[in-house]
Amino acid sequence: MPEEQRPRRRQARGERRVAQLLEAAAGVFCKVGYTAATTNAIAREAGVSPGTLYQFFPNKEAIAIELGGILNQRMREGHGELFTPENASLPLREMLEVIVDPMIEFNCQNPAFLALVHDSDVPGTVVMEHDVLHSSLLERVEHLLGLRAPALSAAERGRVAAMAFGLFKAGLALVLAHEGTERDAYVGEVKAALYGYLAPYVGTGAVAMTEAGPAPAATA
């Protein structure tokens, strides 16, 4: 084997092992929470020895920081694809479909995201990164509101964005607590609640975007 190929192969094996350990950690954090989780439990979930785990992570905190960073980055990238002028111009019901469904799907597929940030003992780095993500999301919601309803003042946009996000988070907790058809039903309830709350502020119809921005008001 050429000498230059060996480091790349070792690096690829190491990346696969790290991914395996992070996936196992996510499962353990979801089952027992961050506080009760141990490196031994994570290693056992991954099917490796504790010694193998320590080759990549010195402790549970390092694992949580790495996992939290990855999940926050995935969510941040998703924000950029959802809160766009194109989506803002859609009829309200359709806009909620294309924004709310992917956000709920992300949380359903990555339950460790909320399991980490809701644990009081989670490393401060994870909490700070989540707080930055939360602020970024609120800014994007405010921007979307401004695109749909430019007549809203900055104070009104901030208040409506905070309320809408609060409704979403409350509904998300119920969605995650159920499965199957009941979960689907709660997803529908979340979107119905957001529709009813937002309609008086942003209208229900499509918004005609111009080169200068949105039309003066959303279509009722």
UniProtKB/TrEMBL annotation:
GO function terms (MF aspect): DNA-binding transcription factor activity; transcription cis-regulatory region binding
InterPro entries: DNA-bd_HTH_TetR-type_CS, Homeodomain-like_sf, HTH-type_TetR-like_transc_reg, HTH_TetR, TetR_C_15
Residue ranges constituting the HTH tetR-type domain according to the UniProt record: 15-75
A Pfam family hit: TetR_C_15
Domain of life of the source: Bacteria
Keyword DNA-binding attributed: yes
Keyword set, alphabetical order: DNA-binding
DNA-binding region per Swiss-Prot/TrEMBL record: 38-57
Protein name: Transcriptional regulator, TetR family
Natural source organism: Actinacidiphila glaucinigra
